Amino acid sequence: MMYPLIGCSVLLIALVIERAVTLRKMNGDGDEVLEEVRRVAPNFAAVSESTKNNGAIGRVLARGIKNAGRPADAIEMAIEQEAAGEMPALDANLPVIKTIVNIAPLLGLLGTIAGMITSFRAASQSGLSNPTQVLGGISEALISTATGITIAIIGFISYNYFANQSKKIVEDMEFYGAELVNVLTDRVS
Question: How many Cα atoms sit within 13 Å of 89 on the Cβ side?
C-alpha cells in the first residue's frame, strides 16, 4: 500500500504548489486601485487597463470601472458577474486535496492490516519460536499507517490554509467592489 501513499503524497505536493502559485497571482491590492480611481476621477479609462494585472480583485474592479458611467445597480451587477467568474479558479483543486486528506489514513490502515495478516500467517506457519520475526513484520506494517497519517496532516493544514486564502480573496472582492461603486457613484468621496 506504500505505492498509492507515495502517489498521494506526490499529488498533494503538486497541488499545494499549484494552489500557492495561483492564489498568490490572484491576490491583489484593492487599496492601490481605489486610490488610483480617486486620483484620476472622472477619467477612469486609463485605470481600467492597469488594474487587470492586479489579480482577481483587479479584474473585478476593472469590470466595475469599465461600467463607470452607468447606474450603481449596473456597476454592482457587472462586478458580481466578474467575481462569479473568478470563483472557480479560487476553489480549484481544493476538493482533490480534501479527498487525499480523507483517503490517505485509510490507505495507511489498509497497508497495516495487510502487513499484520502476512506477519500472523508467517507466525502460524513457523510458530512463535522466533517472535522477532513477527514483531519485525508488525513494525514494518505500521509504517504505512504513519505515512498515511502524515500525509493527511500535511494535506489538512494545506487545505485549511488555501480555503482561508480563497475566502479572504472573496471577501476582499466584495469589500473593494462595494467601495468602488461608492466612489464611482459619488456616494462617498
Answer: 18
Nine-digit cell string for 50: 492597469
Please say whether the beta carbons of 76 and 83 come within 8 A. Answer: no
Which run of H or E residues covers position 87? helix 72-91
125: how many CB neighbours lie within 10 A of its CB? 7
**In 69-102, which positions are buried (b, 16+ CB within 10 angstroms) versus exposed (e)?**
eeeeeebbebbbebbeebeeebebbbeebeebbe
Q: H or E element: which one contains 37?
A: helix 30-40
CB 38 within 8 A of CB 180: no
- Give the global pTM: 0.81
Q: Which value, to the nearest 10 degrees, does the dihedral of the CA atoms of residues 82, 85, 87, 92 take?
A: -150
Residue of 102, 81, 186 whose CA lies nearest to 148: 102
User: Could you report the per-residue pLDDT of 128-169, keeping only the tens digit for each?
Assistant: 777 777 777 788 788 999 999 999 999 999 999 999 999 999
- Measured in degrees and rounded to the nearest 5, phi and psi for residue 48 equal -55, -45
